[in-house]
Design brief:
189 residues; alpha+beta; Nucleotidyltransferase, domain 5; 5-stranded mixed sheet; 4-stranded antiparallel sheet; 3 helices
């Protein structure tokens, strides 16, 4: 059996997560980007071997590569071998690899030269965010993926207008990038 990186596995449950609305603000330039938390990924079936009896074969779905992020990912919907999904569940990281790809793409669109100077990032958290979920958000920007996306991460619970006012008043945050994540409400049946 071949070892597979867990961040590359795909589960059908990811399709059920409603995309969050994400607003990114570059405090340095004032530019704003609004996107949906979607990722398009090429997915392949991987055989793991026999279950123990001749009638059973174990398989898993694995992400081969990421194709697009945000609203660009919608263009891939319905293509064979491609899944379009949200790597966030109710505003929290549910799939680290896909979330890193998505945030890397968003930051690249907002600040193309950021590879030279990683920004300070302020990320919105939900009031019910647990310590483990906060750690996952910080690790997403600091540790996950090929390279860190930020040099420092601050978490905040304030509204977008409140955080804009705080950033405007604090000169130490004048170079920051704000990432405001607003989850869509799950409809209860």
């Amino acid at each position: 059996m071949r070892k597979t990186d867990a961040s590359r596995l795909f589960s059908d449950r990811y399709r059920s997560f409603l995309p969050s609305d994400i607003t990114l603000i570059d405090c340095k330039s004032g530019e704003t980007l609004r996107e949906s938390s979607l990722v398009a990924a090429e997915v392949e079936q991987e055989e793991l071997g026999q279950c123990g009896n001749a009638d059973c074969e174990q398989t898993q779905r694995r992400i081969r590569r990421y194709l697009a992020a945000g609203t660009d990912a919608e263009a891939y919907a319905g293509r064979p071998g491609v899944e379009v999904f949200s790597p966030l569940r109710e505003g929290q990281v549910a799939h680290t690899g896909a979330a890193w790809y998505m945030m890397d793409a968003f930051l690249e669109w907002l600040r193309p030269k950021r590879r030279l100077f990683r920004p300070l990032v302020c990320v919105h958290t939900q009031p019910e965010t647990t310590e483990a979920q906060e750690r996952a958000l910080v690790e997403l920007f600091m540790l996950a993926g090929r390279t860190p996306l930020a040099k420092q991460v601050f978490l905040y619970e304030q509204t977008l207008s409140q955080i804009k006012r705080i950033l405007h008043e604090n000169k130490n945050l004048s170079q920051a990038v704000v990432i405001h994540i607003e989850p869509q409400e799950q409809k209860r049946t």
